[in-house]
Specification:
Elements: H1 14-27, E1 48-52, E2 63-66, H2 68-71, H3 81-86, E3 96-99, E4 108-111, E5 119-125, E6 128-131, H4 133-136, E7 145-151, E8 160-165, E9 171-175, E10 180-182, E11 195-201, E12 210-215, E13 229-234, E14 237-243, E15 246-247, E16 257-259, E17 265-267, E18 273-279, E19 282-287, E20 293-294, E21 309-315, E22 324-329, E23 336-342, E24 345-348, E25 357-358, E26 364-367, E27 376-379, H5 387-390, E28 412-413, E29 417-423, E30 426-429, H6 431-434, E31 442-448, E32 457-462, H7 471-483, H8 488-493, E33 506-510, E34 516-518, H9 520-523, E35 531-537, E36 546-551, E37 557-561, E38 567-573, E39 585-590, E40 593-598, E41 601-602, E42 613-616, E43 622-627, E44 633-639, E45 643-648, E46 666-669, E47 700-703, E48 712-715, E49 724-728, E50 734-736, E51 748-755, E52 758-764, E53 774-780, E54 784-790, E55 795-802, E56 811-818, E57 830-835, E58 838-841, H10 843-846, E59 854-861, E60 870-878, E61 881-885, E62 890-892, E63 904-905, E64 909-912, E65 921-924, E66 941-946, E67 955-961, E68 967-969, H11 973-979, H12 990-995, ...
Parallel strand pairs: 20-24, 25-28, 38-45, 79-86
Antiparallel strand pairs: 1-45, 2-37, 3-4, 4-5, 5-6, 7-8, 8-9, 9-10, 11-12, 11-41, 12-18, 13-14, 14-15, 16-17, 18-19, 21-22, 22-23, 23-24, 26-27, 27-29, 29-30, 31-32, 32-33, 33-34, 35-36, 36-37, 38-42, 39-40, 39-43, 43-44, 46-78, 47-48, 48-49, 49-50, 51-52, 52-53, 53-54, 55-56, 56-57, 57-58, ...
């Protein structure tokens, strides 16, 4: 397709432009877009035009802030202090709108003022601006203006104007090309004050742009001291009957206040409004209620939503051509993600779509942050980065209290949230992982590729005139009010002592979609103003986006973008009435690397961009695709760097048919009889614990407990529940097995095994702390209990079996999970030898397992060249442990194998030959990187524990580093004082606590009285055996999204390389922490070289949104594909049937009489001249769980034989395989001799 250069945009004369406009209006043969180019000479068949940018020089990436003297912009959003003291709503600030108002091809600036008139600065070129608001009739004097948007609402090519104000109504101004006139007789004329941000899109597909206005209030209860309420009961419900003796019904107080679940008073915000464009500048006003808006299950809303709207943005997040809507609400009003279901109707996204939100949501922006083709989004809140300020900040009144099994709620947290799109309408919140959870008292986010590397960076405006959440000031004001008789006005004016929080604006650099790093100083975006609204536009016509920031009581911030890297600017000429192509998606493709953005109008906090989209072109020529709102597409096969492209809808074509998707590896299937895991609320006697210790289970196990040749399942249960025993009905269904074992558990059931028809369970005495009762029970499914092992002083956890002493039978390992009420003090673990079918604790075998630590999981596998089962342990608050079996006992060789320095919060462990070299590697799960915790070798995570003040309570003190490198308490004083009330006697106020280092706070004896633990890594890791040591390799980033528990190693896609599944999430954390819910269960495919690729939901078919715990693999339907069972704490297990195309080889071992399933055997396929990955038959692995003894080995199409190294005696045999063989029963002694067990 040919490309035609545009006439120069900068040299075009205004007179000529108006003449062309007149021709366009009369003939209706050309269109005008806000970039200001003329279509004179444009051929009707040409779908795009371009103009080359001038050389920008060699300036480095970033911004230069330009002065009013150099630009002519002398605007300042002034606000009288008394005015804001009497009404704090004004402190929410004002915004800015960008666009070409006068049609000269240059981007103009419109600024809102609270105590001043609004200003319109017309761009004269070369960074010169002329103020013309009054001349154009849009100065809005005395209107307390806050939000604005420039957009063509009537399709005439001119930008119209929408203006909100604190006390007034939303104003609509129509641009006729010569100036503005206020539109009257509209739905906007109704008295609806308190409008804030504006979002514009065509919500009903009629090519007319509709308007969404978020609403707050023009005055709040905080500005109404001594307001008093009277109540009455209606039925069993307590309601407010009058406010200040004014009856609520029929007054301005109707729907304003409510009684919350705690009996307190909550103030409601105002409803938002959607204005449907009917054409000819006429709009239908729709309140957000059941007429057009439905809940997540499709029912019309029951009345209007009275919420605290601060920002709203349209975005077609599911790519169906209909703009969806996100609304940011302040306080405890829920944020709303509305999915457009057609004809201008909306439905709330399912609760599982986003499983948490910010508390004080200020602003939002969307971007494809990691270039996976899916839109992610980011929401701002007000968590401080500075520790001293944060520790003096009032915590939210509403705190999340987890309920076991409840994951379809949406708790709110006072911090930024970043939602990474996982596909299938599901998001993972990853702000901590990305390094953007805190940015101070923030207002407006803006994704923009500052350094033009192809990844969008993040700009944030910051600051507040008075920090009304400053605790020491709150207490001082309270004391003054209680000791002095003050008038209402005096009470309000006294708030002037709140400190100003004038923090720097922030620029975060996007590190290729994996993380963000602060870079504001380097990029010149770090002013210490109180900044609110922000918008981007190309103010100088050089093809990059400049930025304008509206500052409170300070000059406007005008930031020139200095980038000289190759770039592309795209503007659209949309269909009739949508002249700027609002809602269209623009993609720039360099091979497999695709940048994508959507053209929006409004959506910024109180602000609106110029609708031009900027892209990096550092990789040279590219393909440009525009997907219009009606899903037609315009494609330019080759675009060149450093050009403006204007793409016309008239050349759009129907989009090609979407290819059918590949079937995912797994499909969820029901398990009849598998009830919900019973879990009670945590009852820990250590008040400062970082997470609940009583919600660790359940484990799961696969095994044939009735001897019919089919893998059955056992699922542990909590206190008051009973183990679920579910019979496999020949792969076609499930049946619950009645059993005498199914008595109610007096304690939490933890780990479970199925071994030779026996079900073995472990129980935790963490909650009762009693060293009697049962720790282990062994029983037949129908025949009752065979043996019980008595409880210890430590709480039992993971169990596993192997022939540790080489006598042919299977012995038992029991992990010591914790010492009740003394977490994380080190505890013992034990070996019980099998003596004629009875298990007896072995002092000699257990001697090396004394005071190991808090052991979460274990697995037996021969890690060296002999056949004996060695023991690998996952240790919480420690390093993985490697105990080598010497035949008479275990020896700790963690140091020799190089793993002792990797201290972590390890939860699960499993083994596999990940690089197909015949050596056993292992995978260990950790807490991940998506929490407030941070650990490196240089700055480890440090905790202290012990009974510091000898009061019988084992104290647990978490720390964090201050800017000076010293350690400070991590927890807020309110939490510390609850656990240690005597602390407040040492402190005068919160400020002193925030500045006092740990050792100064607790005194000189602290270090000697308390035990110190250091954690150096939080990543889940595979350890690859190489040259006698284990080398760490972090699992893919999605494995670090949340706390990980159970790893399951198997070849799930039957390609011959071992894969890994991990269960994820933990909710019962310290109240200051956000629940860890970003995991959905993760399948990672191995490449046979030690690396793994995390699959998307659409590829794996796995979604486990709750608290994933024990997990196990089995081919339950005997189709040669490995299926997966995943348990959830407090909820039902999930079973996933494997439906991958390839069948693997089912391997059934028949070993010795005392070990008939060949537990501990190692097997490999013979593949031509080579060998496949080594697989160990484990009985107890992962986390509290057991895989089926029958193995499925992939890549069997190439196999000529199976090599089995039997346990106990180390005998190695070879079994021939036929081409395409799908199952083999390998009987010990029936194979031929194989040269070496190490091969």
């Amino acid at each position: 397709m040919g490309q035609k250069p545009l006439p120069s945009l900068k040299t075009m004369e205004f007179v000529l432009f108006n003449r062309i406009r007149l021709i366009w209006v009369v003939a209706i043969t050309c269109a005008m877009v806000s970039s200001g180019y003329s279509e004179s000479g444009l051929d009707k068949d040409t779908s795009h035009r371009w103009e080359k940018f001038a050389d920008a020089g060699n300036l480095s990436s970033g911004f230069t802030r330009l002065s009013g003297e150099s630009t002519g912009l002398f605007f300042e959003n002034s606000l009288d202090a008394t005015k804001s003291l009497l009404n704090q709503v004004y402190l929410n600030g004002s915004g800015v709108a960008l666009g070409d108002v006068d049609g000269n091809g240059l981007c103009d600036i419109y600024l809102c003022g609270l105590d001043s008139s609004n200003h319109l600065y017309l761009n004269q070129g070369n960074w010169g601006f002329r103020e013309a608001a009054k001349k154009y009739g849009v100065d809005c004097p005395d209107s307390d203006s806050n939000g604005a948007c420039l957009v063509d609402l009537d399709g005439d090519g001119d930008l119209d104007l929408i203006v909100n104000s604190v006390h007034g109504v939303t104003r609509l101004y129509r641009n006729d090309g010569t100036g503005f006139s206020r539109a009257t007789g509209q739905a906007f004329d109704s008295i609806v004050p308190g409008g804030t941000s504006i979002a514009v899109a065509d919500v009903n597909g009629d090519n007319l742009l509709d308007i969404y206005i978020s609403h707050y209030r023009d005055k709040t209860l905080m500005d109404m001291p001594n307001t008093h309420f009277k109540f009455k009961n209606v039925g069993r419900k307590k309601i407010i009957s009058s406010v200040n003796d004014i009856p609520v019904k029929g007054s301005a107080f109707e729907n304003r206040f409510r009684v919350n679940s705690r009996g307190g008073i909550e103030e409601n915000g105002l409803p938002d409004f959607l204005y449907i464009n009917k054409g000819n500048f006429s709009f239908e006003r729709c309140e957000i209620n059941g007429k057009r808006f439905r809940d997540s299950i499709g029912n019309p809303l029951d009345g209007s939503l009275f919420e605290w709207g601060l920002a709203a943005m349209f975005r077609d997040i599911n790519r169906d051509g209909r703009p969806d809507l996100f609304v940011c609400n302040d306080f405890d009003s829920e944020d709303r993600l509305w999915l457009n279901i057609g004809n201008g109707n909306f439905r709330l996204a399912p609760t599982y779509a986003m499983r948490k939100s910010s508390m004080f949501s200020m602003g939002i922006d969307f971007a494809d942050l990691n270039r996976d083709g899916l839109d992610d989004f980011f929401i701002l809140d007000m968590l401080n980065r500075n520790r001293e300020i944060k520790m003096n900040q009032m915590l939210p009144r509403v705190r999340y209290h987890p309920i076991p099994g409840e994951y379809l709620n949406r708790p709110q947290y006072m911090r930024n949230t970043m939602f990474l799109n996982r596909g299938e309408g599901v998001y993972s919140e990853v702000a901590n992982l990305m390094g953007v959870a805190a940015s101070d008292w923030s207002w407006c986010p803006l994704f923009i590729d500052v350094d033009l590397d192809g990844y969008e960076d993040l700009l944030i405006t910051n600051g507040v005139e008075r920090n009304a959440r400053h605790l020491d000031t709150i207490l001082k004001l309270k004391q003054n009010r209680e000791s002095t008789d003050m008038t209402n006005r005096e009470i309000l004016l006294a708030r002037k002592i709140f400190p100003s929080q004038q923090t720097e604006n922030i620029a975060f650099k996007n590190l290729a979609g994996r993380q963000f790093a602060e870079n504001g100083a380097n990029w010149g975006f770090h002013a210490n103003d109180i900044s609110h609204g922000m918008a981007a536009g190309d103010l100088d016509g050089d093809g990059d986006l400049d930025v304008v920031v509206n500052n409170l009581n300070a000059p406007v911030g005008v930031y020139r973008n200095n980038s000289s890297r190759p770039r592309l600017l795209v503007r659209l000429k949309g269909p009739n009435n949508n002249t700027q192509g609002i809602g269209a998606r623009v993609e720039v493709k360099h091979g497999k690397f695709v940048q994508s953005q959507e053209v929006i109008a409004g959506g910024r906090y109180l602000s609106s961009d110029d609708p031009a989209r900027m892209f990096s072109m550092v990789n040279g020529a590219a393909q440009l695709t525009v997907t219009w709102p009606d899903l037609k597409v315009s494609v330019i096969d080759r675009i060149e760097p450093n050009r403006l492209y204007v793409v016309d809808y008239q050349g759009a074509k129907q989009s090609p048919a979407v290819k059918s998707r590949t079937k995912p590896i797994f499909a969820a299937t029901r398990v009849g009889g598998a009830g919900s895991h019973k879990e009670a609320l945590a009852n820990d006697n250590q008040p400062l614990l970082p997470w609940a210790l009583g919600q660790a289970g359940p484990g799961v196990a696969w095994g044939d407990f009735d001897g019919d040749g089919w893998e059955d399942m056992a699922i542990a249960n909590g206190r008051g529940g009973s183990v679920s025993l579910i019979k496999n009905k020949n792969g076609s269904g499930w049946a619950t097995v009645p059993s005498t074992l199914k008595t109610k558990n007096p304690r939490d059931g933890m780990s479970v095994l199925i071994s030779q028809g026996t079900v073995i369970q472990s129980f935790s005495n963490h909650e009762d702390g009693l060293a009697f009762g049962d720790m282990i029970t062994l029983g037949e499914v129908r025949g009752g209990t065979l043996q019980k092992l008595a409880a210890k002083g430590s709480s039992g956890g993971h169990i596993g079996k192997a022939d540790v002493d080489g006598d042919g039978d299977l012995d038992l390992f029991v992990a010591g999970r914790s010492l009740p009420d003394k977490y994380p003090e080190k505890t013992d673990s034990w070996i019980y030898l099998n003596e004629n079918g009875k298990f007896t604790e072995s002092e000699s075998w257990s001697s090396s397992l004394k005071a190991l630590g808090a052991i979460s999981a274990a697995v037996f596998a021969p890690i060296n060249s002999d056949h004996r089962p060695d023991l690998i342990l996952a240790c919480e608050w420690g390093a993985p442990k490697l105990f080598v079996n010497k035949g008479t006992g275990f020896v700790d060789q963690s140091n020799q194998y190089g793993v002792d320095k990797f201290t972590g919060l390890w939860r699960g462990i499993d083994v596999g030959d990940f690089n197909n070299d015949g050596l056993i590697d292992f995978v260990a799960t950790n807490r991940g990187l998506n929490s407030s915790y941070f650990a490196t070798t240089e700055q480890p995570l440090v905790v202290y524990h012990g009974d510091f003040n000898q009061d019988g309570v084992w104290d647990f003190i978490e720390t964090e580093y201050g800017e000076n490198g010293q350690l400070y308490p991590k927890r807020h004083l309110s939490a510390m004082a609850t656990a240690m009330p005597w602390l407040t006697e040492r402190l005068q106020n919160y400020g002193q606590y925030s500045k006092t280092p740990l050792f100064n706070l607790f005194g000189p004896t602290f270090e000697t009285q308390m035990k110190r633990v250091e954690i150096r890594t939080l990543e889940s890791i595979v350890f690859i055996q190489n040259g006698g040591i284990f080398e760490p390799k972090a699992l893919p980033i999605k494995a670090q999204f949340s706390s990980a528990f159970c790893p399951v190693v198997a070849d799930f896609n039957n390609d011959g390389s071992e894969d890994i599944f991990i269960s994820q999430n933990e909710f019962s954390l310290h109240p200051e922490e956000s629940r860890e819910d970003a995991g959905l269960g993760l399948l990672m495919l191995g490449d046979g070289k030690g690396s793994f690729r995390a699959l998307s939901i659409s590829e794996s078919g796995l979604v486990v949104p709750g608290e994933g715990r024990g997990s196990a693999a089995a081919d339950f339907d005997h189709d040669g594909r490995t299926d997966l069972l995943v348990a959830q704490n407090g909820s039902t297990p999930r079973l996933f049937k494997n439906q991958t195309k390839r069948n693997g080889l089912r391997v059934i071992l028949r070993g010795d009489e005392q070990n008939p399933e060949g537990v501990g055997a190692a097997m490999r396929l013979k593949l031509g001249d080579g060998l496949g990955a080594k697989r160990i038959v484990r009985l107890g692995s992962g986390y509290l769980s057991q895989n089926a003894p029958t193995q499925v080995l992939g890549n069997n199409e190439q196999a000529t034989g199976l090599i089995v190294a039997w346990p106990s005696d180390g005998k190695t045999e070879f079994f021939n395989l036929q081409s395409g063989q799908l199952e083999i029963v390998a009987i010990k002694g029936r194979g031929s001799a194989w040269p070496s067990a190490s091969q």
